[in-house]
Amino acid sequence: PTEGRIVFDGKDTEALSKRVVRKYKEKIGMVFQNYNLLNNLNVQQNIALPLKIINQQDKAKVDELIGFVGLNDKRDYYPAQLSGGEKQRVALARALVRNPDILLCDEATSSLDEHNTEIIIKMLKKVNKAYNITIIFVT
Q: Which residues of the chain have pLDDT under 50?
């Protein structure tokens, strides 16, 4: 920050080692404005990607999240076959797959129409209740 402080878990982040900061980052999920899905991976593979990067698998968690975001019937679809709202739900599930404590949403609804914006907002409220996650929503 150019001024002020970022305090995470009661600790000033400026005073933390890079190793500790990296550990904290593992507890943060991120939903981007433009989805950031990989076009050559289907819904299931996009959601599982953060686990694959750290050499883990959790098919049950991926399946749970596909159901949670209401895309059971589209698990084998590729991003080009999805609407904007569906892409954002995939991005949300991907952000949740590593069980974060904090979810950062960077303009997560700015590229969506009014109907899909409402769906995503309701889904974020559901995420907060179901998974007890702090959500920081930039709009």
A: none
